[in-house]
Amino acid sequence: MTQQTGQDADKRPSYKDTLNLLETGFGMRANAIHREPELQAFWKEKGIDLDLGRNNPGPVFTLHDGPPYANGALHMGHALNKVLKDIINKHRLMQGRKVRFVPGWDCHGLPIELKVLQAMSQEQRQALTPIKLRKKAAVYAHKQVAGQMAGFKRWGIWADWEHPYLTLQKDYEAAQIDVFGTMALKGHIYRGLKPVHWSPSSRTALAEAELEYPDGHTSPSVYVGFPVVDLPTGLRSKLNEQGLDVPSESNALSQCLQVAIWTTTPWTLPANLAVSVNDRLDYCLADDGNGRLLIVAAELCDSLATKLERPLHAKATVKGADLAGITYSHPLLERRSAIVVGGEYITTESGTGLVHTAPGHGVDDFNTGRKHGLPVLCPVDEAGTLTAEAGPFEGLNVLKDANAVIITALEDSGSLLLQENYSHRYPYDWRTKKPTIFRATEQWFASVEGFRTEALTAIDGVQWLPASGRNRIESMVSERGDWCISRQRTWGVPIPVFYQRETGDVLLNADSIAHVKALIADHGADIWWEKDEVDLLPSSHSAEAHLWRKGTDTMDVWFDSGSSWASVSSQRDGLSYPADLYLEGSDQHRGWFQSSLLTSVAVNGTAPYRTVLTHGFALDEKGRKMSKSLGNVVDPMVIIEGGKNQKQEPAYGADVLRLWVSSVDYSADVPIGAGILRQLSDVYRKVRNTSRYLLGNLHDFVP
User: Fold this and answer.
1) How many Å apart are CA 537 and CA 552, to the nearest integer?
2) pTM as predicted
3) Who's near 33: CB < 8 A, 6+ residues apart?
4) Closest by alpha carbon to 416, among 218, 618, 226, 636?
5) What is the pLDDT of residues 618-635, one digit of tens each?
6) Nearest to residue 297, comparing CAs of 379, 353, 228?
7) At 318, is the secondary structure helix, strand, or coil?
8) In degrees rounded to 5, what are phi and psi of residue 189?
9) Domains and CATH numbers, the chain
């Protein structure tokens, strides 16, 4: 074999130029903990997000941000919401639309007030004035906003971070006063004594949106017999026609005839002023075998007999209308009341078909009482303690010891037919996580009835995604009562009213509203607590300032956030009203979507949004709600930065968090957990390596 010489070797062909060698600075590993903050700093330095939003040639696109509450750490619900918004905004940017995303925060309300109070000693609290509390609350809120904003930025959210909207800002508060004032001048705001959801733990009224209904609530329900002391002549005749003869004398009658009622709130019995019936239902007088007749709905006679564990034999049957006018004696107090006709809320689904009616402690009770001219008796104070009007039960707390004491008293009087525990949905204060009650108090209300038809019409003009959202909010608006907008707290926007010291008459007119609005626009809502009536009243009344006192109530935080369109989307440059899109969790049909709709329709006759999109909730991998007690909480910042144990909780970076949001069906509840994150990390790695290969291929490409 011939050997190759050195000269021949030098002539061998080179294949280097025939190979496609990849060249790219795009690393195989993301190194997200370091690279992502560098990239975000570059965005900020160059103003990339804002420049794109301003300079695009297309029309304005406004996604109006629903304000998260300025309290607590960010969670996966925040991540799902904000990243979805960011994806949509960037998509619109790529389409050439002008996009200015203004982030917002809800900064007033009880949770912040409580945080401030909890950080103080008893001595400090006693020396605390309302204005000092407000100053401390504002500092706390700003600190919380700064912390949450840093988290949102770390997630790669593009927004006008230099100009967010906060519900504690002067211009925002002034716009809110204007919304309230316009509604008042249109006749949509009134003050009245009505039963409202009351939180003894917070000592304030609550709106429906501030309630939650946890599983597992049990109440001590009682069946009680109210002794009858007089029958209408017409009813007595009808009973005689059926062969039933009852005594005429009151004492004898009360021994043999009782009105059977059922209630899950025994503590309201001292406030009983009537028993209500459905005039169209059949009621029977049933013999219980112990020489006593019980009046009960005919359809419920057998079920009551089963509960009492003894037979009930109907001796006569009459219509509910025939029972109206029966006089009965209160089993625990020296009080006589009557059976009255109620409404369709009285059914045969449970109970006895006769409803214990306390006008001061229930909406149906109140409406029935008003129809029949009954007083609004509410023997419960703001702490949930029974007052002197409750007679021997004064001093008992309605959520602690009142039920047990009253049940014992019923048993001693011989009026207790049955006591049993009853599991049902019961409203809790969403902040303190403690039960609420219905309590009649003087409150300020927005009369939804005055613009309900307009609101329903506006709903039809909005695109709802998914479409089921339309039916949901339509049902809520159709059925909701008047909106209680006053709160007995300090940290909030004041209800700008004055009361005549002698008569209690209210001053709320165009001049007073305009004057307070101007003061708040210049100084912020603190001015209401810093100044006296002589400065707060309009010039037309300042000379008689000594005759007036300013109100102490603040507005419901849902009125705060529900007025955001008035100071943000309808006022700021680069935004549009109605907004193109509102995007929040499905729970906001009863919250922000609804409060925004009601205020906007009441003031302007239009919805504040063109499209409403809802997403589900973030759950753990087993489909359970996240909670500290279950130990299944996933922290978005741990996903990004990693946890204490990097093997169990590695740092995935913001892109993996964002990939999770973009990969799920957001219209339903979505799971997240360690297993899902590992899968997403693998997907992300494949996408990154594929992108790296493509970029390497294009290194010498000249278009």
Assistant:
1) 15
2) 0.81
3) 640, 641, 642, 651, 653
4) 226
5) 998 888 988 887 888 899
6) 353
7) strand
8) -115, 135
9) 18-55+638-703 (no CATH), 179-210+434-455+479-553 (no CATH), 218-424 (3.90.740.10)
